[in-house]
Amino acid sequence: MIETWIEVIFNIIVAIFLLAGSFFLISSSIGTIRFPDVYTRLHATTKASTLGIASLLIGAFLFLYIQHDIISGKLLLAIVFTLITSPVAAHMISRAAHRVGIKPVTKNRTDEYEQAIHKQKQQQK
Amino acid sequence: MNSLLNVTENIILIATIISITAIGISLILLVYRIISGPTNVDRAVALDAAGMNMMGMAALMAIMIPTTKLNDVILLIGVLLFIGTIGVAKYLEKGVIIDRDLD
């Protein structure tokens, strides 16, 4: 009796996790379409995608644990790996974009990374 | 009691179908950004996001056809996505993927 109640509650939790993850993924994709710049697109993509992927994989993990009695360590490892490597990849891409020479859209403020590089070069001389 | 259990399992199935549809629409939007990105860096960003969506699609497929063989696929897509993104970023930055002078 109590086991069926636990199973019902976990099924609803799995459905909520899946819907939340797909919502964050599609919102990150809409941000990739709508934002005007490489850096703002990275801002939309990497954070919302990381949250959505973590939520979807937690949902899949709970589903496998409830339905098949399997504790899948690979899914947990995939969550941890995504949380570690996604900011690193975004940082590499943004630095590559700045070195290629793409100017950020700067309304009411200046390019602070460019100023920092300029100041460092002046200190080295 | 068993009818309530069946109802919640159907809720999981419907949620999975809705999520697959949403990720499909998301992939279509990302393919638009990949094709018509103004620069190559935009294409790299959109490819990164497309790989993330592929991981989610594999997880949803593992729920849809109840199997456990797809967990390796999810982990492998994550690892290859990271290595591919780093390679593309290094290529766009200097034109040299493996450089020996560690600056």
Automatic annotation (TrEMBL), chain A:
The keyword Magnesium does not apply. Keywords: Antiport, Membrane, Transmembrane, Transmembrane helix, Transport. It comes from the Bacteria. The keyword Transmembrane applies. GO terms for cellular component: membrane. It is a multi-pass membrane protein. GO terms for molecular function: sodium:proton antiporter activity. It is found in: Membrane. Belongs to the CPA3 antiporters (TC 2.A.63) subunit G family. This is Cation:proton antiporter. It comes from Lentibacillus amyloliquefaciens. The lineage of its organism: Bacteria, Bacillati, Bacillota, Bacilli, Bacillales.
Automatic annotation (TrEMBL), chain B:
GO terms for cellular component: plasma membrane. InterPro entries: MrpF/PhaF-like. Pfam families: MrpF_PhaF (PF04066). It is found in: Cell membrane. The chain crosses the membrane at residues 12-32, 44-67, 73-92. Belongs to the CPA3 antiporters (TC 2.A.63) subunit F family. Keywords: Antiport, Cell membrane, Ion transport, Membrane, Transmembrane, Transmembrane helix, Transport. It comes from Lentibacillus amyloliquefaciens. The keyword Lipoprotein does not apply. One of its GO terms (molecular function) is sodium:proton antiporter activity. This is Cation:proton antiporter.
